[in-house]
Amino acid sequence: MRKNVNSHSGRMFSDRKWSLPFFASVIVSIMLFLTAIFGLFSSPYVGEQLPFDIISFSRSEDSSDYFVESDLRRSLETSGVSKTKAPRLAYLISGTKGDSHRMMRTLEAVYHPRNQYILHLDLEAPPRERLELTNLVKSDPMFREVENVRVMAQSNLVTYKGPTMIACTLQAVAVLLRESLEWDWFINLSASDYPLVTQDDLLHVFSNLSRNTNFIEHMQITGWKLNQRAKPIIIDPGLYLSKKSDLALTTQRRSLPTSFKLFTGSAWIMLTRSFLEYCIWGWDNFPRTILMYYTNFISSPEGYFHTVICNTPEFRNTAISHDLHYIAWDSPPKQHPISLSMKDFDKMVKSKAPFARKFAKGDPVLDKIDKELLGRTNRFAPGAWCAGSLDGGADPCSLRGNDTVFRPGPGAKRLQELLDSLLSEDFRKTQCS
């Protein structure tokens, strides 16, 4: 009995020990609650600036400003008018086995200190040739001084009609975005391409053009191309083999997509930095979805960028359906360009295009272009940046001057006439249709 009483009294003593803190906490809680209620109706900061910022999501502005896509929209709006600063171009010049010297000739013909250049000699070229190309660039005093020419260290096996060409292009763009913040348009050329205007002509004309204008020849896929390109499923051996071979066709066929429209056109492009940033980063995942789709698509380089740009509202109206090339095609269905020669010179000039393709290695028409269109007597096509003397047949471009000043020639007039027609209202009505 004594044991039970003691036990009971112990519990009573324990309860009394916790009662005081309990009631104290209740009183404090009530006081805090009442203070909070009255504080809602009588703020001590009435008429004064709050000591912190309040973000209200019910404000009149569009809430889309909080998302990364709005940065793209604002960028497009602010750069819709041409910038006053002289533009810069970024070039990818690609080649294969035996093309190293042709690539250097094309590079020197399109060289300007303001621009950026990436050279890619694919995996089919022997290591000795890739090393020779690298040494040519490293040993050049102008390239060493300006540091705007790079040889892609990682060589890829490129199948022209397969997705490996897209992969190589996207890799070059990624390198340019990582290493250079100063370029406005990206241009892809091959070793068989050649310019028909000087860089001074090109940069002068593009100085007055909106930096949101993309040149990409395109049309919606119809007719025979739907059955021969869109429905077959292909495998590009260049993705997993070390030697180039033809595309492999599977026996299966697929239906056409319903969530986006398919477009096709020229593989030769001049695209804006803002659009290519979207293709690389792809914050809404659409460019990656299209890239996966075109991994198994015949002639995917002629459809990937075209389908992305024409299915993206922010960029659809920036697409101009022209590849800025003069190309002479074979007889219908015009699937293979013929090699240009002397007999095509007048047609090239009349086309007013800044580039032409394709040229056979060392064709005499290249010398004619150098002399009559580019004024090229030494290594580089001369421009206002060439500050050296012509005395004694010296190279005026051996001394670099102000690269923000341009000296346009007849090529600028031809190119301006071409752009005036391409930017006309009637021509632009047909884009992405």
UniProtKB/TrEMBL annotation:
Single GO MF annotation: glucuronosyltransferase activity
Example of a GO cellular component annotation carried by this entry: membrane
Localization of this protein: Membrane
Keyword Ribosomal protein: no
Predominant localisation class: membrane
Record's bilayer topology term: Single-pass type II membrane protein
Keywords tagged on the record: Glycoprotein, Glycosyltransferase, Membrane, Transferase, Transmembrane, Transmembrane helix
Pfam families with a match to the protein in the record: Branch
Superkingdom to which the source organism belongs: Eukaryota
Transmembrane helix recorded as keyword: yes
Transmembrane segments: 20-41
Protein name stated in the entry: Uncharacterized protein
